[in-house]
Amino acid sequence: MTDVLNTKRAKQAALGPYGRVGKSLDELDDRLGIAKGGRTFLDKIFPDHWSFMLGEIALYSFVVLMVTGVFLTLYYIPSQAIVTYHGGYLPLDGQKVTQAFSSSVDLSFAVRGGLLMRQMHHWACDIFVGAIVVHMARVFFTGAFRKPRELNWTIGGTLLILAIVNGFLGYSLPDDLVSGTGIRIAYSIILSIPVVGSYLGFLVFGGNFPGTAIIPRFFILHVLIVPLIIIGLVTAHMALLLRQKHTQFPGEGRTENNVVGSPMFPVFMAKTTGFLFVISGITALLGAFAQVNPIWQFGPYDASRISYAVQPDWYMGFLDGALRIWPSWSFHSFGFTIPWEVFIPAVLLPGLIFNIVFAWPAIERRFTKDDAMHNLLDRPSDRPKRTAAGVAMLALLGMLFIASSTDVMANFFHVSLNTVLWTMRVLCITAPFVAYPITYKICKELQAVKGGGKRKTPNVVTRTAEGEYVATPAPVYVDDLHHGHEPTEVPKFFPADTEEPGDSGVRVVER
Amino acid sequence: MSENQEIRTPVSVAGLEHEYPHLEPSANNPQLVERVIAVMFLIGIALLVAFGACYWINAQPWKLGATLGGAMFFLGVGLIAWGKYLMPRGPFVEERHTLANSEADRDAFAAAIVERGGDVVKRRKVLGGLLGGGLGIFGVVAMFPLLRSLGPLPKGTLDHTDWKNGSYVVDQSGRRVQVGDLAVGSIVTVFPEGTQDTDRGQAVDQTVLIRLSNEDFTTQKGRETWAPKGYVAYSKVCTHLGCPVGLYEQQLQLLVCPCHQSMFNVNNGAIPQFGPAPRPLPQLPLYVDADGNLRAQSDYHVPIGPGFWERHV
Ligand code: HEM
Ligand code: FES
Fold first, then answer.
1. What is the reported pLDDT for A491?
2. Residue range A334-377, pLDDT digits in tens
């Protein structure tokens, strides 16, 4: 026996078949016991359908928000102390502005890369909220919120609220003329709450509007407290996803009891990391080429000035629209006032909408009496009532959003504001009621389409020995073979076609 | 099963043999794809270097963004393409295990909570009650310092502004407004003297002063003396949500709020004529003193601005 020690080969042999990496993993497993769970994690299957990407967009734009946001905190000063501006933007030179404003302008002009970071942060915010909304829509219309995933639906809805809130808080920080007007409106909305409104307003603002406390308070909420809650909830969202595994659309080999797709490592990891890069890249390109929130043009906030055509960020549009079209119904009696004209559209309406969102899984269960576990997704047209309800809600929100630019429309179409106002009022009320039956009908029609939702397959035309041409449909794509799931029966109005050789002389055979 | 179908039947990742078709890349022409991805990575790297250079020389922001964004974009698309076309095509399958545990496990869990917990509470009722009560009181009491130190209480401060009998009317620069100062049809934002530079002055006391052509102008009954020499003054704080009512439509004699387009008629006491604002803009009673200065007779007779619960008139 030859004992060859100290050769390269023997050393490698001593390390085992997986070399240094294997050795380090062994050391780690000795201490943490991660081998089994780690392997399961690497083998985790992610469905390949594109709609599963929407949540990732939200997640990665949040990553961009955190990275750019930390950069901004290094230069932004959350103070309403008055300073005289002497920075790089000459039109403002010598003006008395708050430190918050002057540091935001300096961030844009004096800090290297600062303007890019500010604009990336703002764009990432708009993308973040948008991605959450679209992601939610896909979860809704495919029924992914059903048992056992109701809790994750609730977490998602909360995340949307927090994203909107944090967007508003951040938008307020530069203390410019436009965002200051937004804070003023927020204060008045708090005042409108019956009984406790003025107390709440004074506590939040540290006294009557504007005071000097609101920017520092918004700052700590915006950069610490709300992001912390968001991070906690996103973690919970992901943990539940890991535990309950993904849903999937029905298809070949897909059942309620499995998941089909690509494994975490390496396929999904490569794709998703690439996706993070793409989202960051697009945000940077937007930040480079699409100006957003040019606060130096708006000027510093002064409660007695206003710029024309003030518009909030897009996700506040539905609230602004509701405030515009709500009638001026103030209630006043016994020495007390209830400002319905503000309280209903700005507090009760969004409260109602989000309560419907949160209650939806329960509402649907009450109607369908469906208590089963669901891991296979619905095609939206197979659930016409749910789909129609969702579209009706989106129609209402869309109309409210459009209503936030009544003045712009009046100017653009050269009609009176009054006409636009009443048109929007009528549209907001009727749109859901029109959208519901139309969507319902379209869903029913789609169900009746033979092979609906499946890709078209070619006909293979062959010439027989007798010289007849025969068209045989090629097999359906395997992914499109639906299993154990058929749409609800729809009435047939026409007798099924009988197969006759057409004029072309081609006979089509049923497969 | 056709060949196509066999390949597309999902298999488990664990224990896959090397010759499985599932492990092959999904691209028909992997060499070509590899080359395309290499080019994308090269572009990405070149742009990253360009970004570094731009940052070094402090180039314009759009150049920073274009190079950084382009680099991330190309690297990302390359990586996605790598994952999509060159990595195992699958499809793979993973079993799902029921989340619910066996009846026995569930019972054991519930028993631990109900029986042990119940025992504790039942046997030590007094202690349990005291603990619960203590925590409850702690919760309530903790709210006081937490909430109460955030700000003062309103205590009727929303009912008043800083205008009072004799306040001089000054413009934004602090100059006292005199009878001859304004041309007919013009408008200026004014404050009670001394507040024009303060946050509160700008937010609460802001007032619009308009000179109308009619010298003995009366907006409403009982306000005969309020608008001397055609000078009429209204609070500038919109009664809807508090935006400054900054636009004056001289021809229509309307004050327009740019936020939600409420319109107030200057002639009749700023009664809202359009839009969501529920109340007129309060009118400030003015007089002209012996030296020709415009001054306030008193504060506004009603609280200014948006509505709130304690607003009593
Ligand atoms: C939920 C995630 C977040 C959202 C939706 C969000 C949104 C926004 C928006 C819309 C702005 C206004 C940007 C502008 O000036 O145009 C802003 C400003 C700002 N954000 Fe965020 N942000 C988020 C997270 C963060 C985090 C995690 C930080 C830091 C730790 C941060 C720090 C800042 C700072 C310092 C500003 C002020 C910058 C300036 O005034 O120029 N943000 N944010
Ligand atoms: S704040 Fe003036 S109309 Fe809404």
1. 42
2. 889 999 999 999 999 999 999 999 999 999 999 999 989 999 99
B92 lies within 8 A of chain A by CB? yes
Determine the distance from the C-alpha atom of residue B86 to the mean position of all C-alpha atoms in its chain, rounded to a whole number. 46
Closest CA to A356 of A198, A175, A145: A145
Residues of B within 8 A of A276 (CB-CB) are: 76
Q: What is the mean pLDDT of residues A465-474?
A: 83
Last residue of a domain, one of A378, A405, A420: A378
DSSP state of B15: T
**Final residue belonging to a domain, choices B25, B55, B86:** B86
Question: Distance (Å) from the C-alpha of residue B117 to the closest C-alpha of chain A?
Answer: 26
Same domain, A204 and A141: yes
pLDDT at A91 over 70: yes
Q: What do you get for the CA distance between the two ends of chain B, in Å?
A: 83
CA distance B239 to B156: 18
Q: How far apart are CA B187 and CA B247, in angstroms?
A: 9
Q: Whose CA is nearest to atom 18 of ligand 1?
A: A170
Residues of B in Cβ contact (< 8 Å) with A285? 65-66, 69-70, 73
Residues A21 and A163 in one domain: no
Q: Do A267 and A189 share a structural domain? A: yes
Contact B290, B296 (CB under 8 A): no
* Chain-centre distance for alpha carbon A398: 15
- Full domain range(s) for residue B221: 161-296
* pLDDT above 90 (res B210): yes
User: Is B172 in the same domain as B59?
Assistant: no
Do the beta carbons of residue A87 and residue A110 sit within 8 Å? yes
Q: Identify whether the C-beta of residue B292 lies closer than 8 Å to the C-beta of residue B181.
A: no
Q: Check whether A483 has a pLDDT greater than 50.
A: no
Is any atom of ligand 1 closer than 6 Å to the C-beta of A215? no
* A257 φ, ψ (degrees, to nearest 5): -110, 15
Q: Would you say residue B308 lies in a domain? A: no
Please work out whether the CB of residue A144 comes within 6 Å of at least one atom of ligand 1.
no
CATH of the domain at A307: 1.20.810.10
Q: Do A184 and B96 touch (CB under 8 A)?
A: no
Amino acid at A133: V
Three-class DSSP category at B76:
helix
How many structural domains does chain B have?
Answer: 2
- Strand B169-170's sheet: what is its strand order? B169-170, B187-192, B207-211, B231-235, B283-284
Determine, for residues A44 and B94 on separate chains, whether the beta-carbon distance falls below 8 Å.
yes
* Pocket residues: Cβ below 6 A from ligand 2: B 238, 240-241, 243, 257, 259-260, 262, 275-277
CB contacts, 8 Å: A198 with chain B: 154, 158, 308-310
Nearest in space to A103 (alpha carbons), one of A126, A76, A83: A76
Q: How far is the CA of A409 from the centre of ligand 2 (A)?
A: 18
Same domain, A20 and A162: no
Q: How far is CA A394 from CA A135, A381, B35, B210, in A?
A: 14, 17, 45, 45
Burial class (CB in 10 A: 0-12, 13-18, 19+), B308: buried
- B156, part of any domain: no
Give the span between the Cα atoms of B177 and B168, in whole angstroms: 8
Nearest to A391 by CA among A438, A449, A445, A355: A438
pLDDT for B128 equals: 85
Q: What is the ipTM of this complex?
A: 0.93
> Given a cut of 70, is residue A486 above it in pLDDT?
no
Total domains in chain A come to 2
Backbone φ, ψ for residue B245 (5° rounding): -80, 90
Residue bearing the CA closest to ligand 2, atom 1: B241
The encoded tokens of residue A187 equal 């204060």
Q: What domain range includes position A15?
A: 8-32
The residue whose two tokens read 């029905």 is A250
Contact between chains at A43 and B202 (C-beta distance less than 8 A):
no
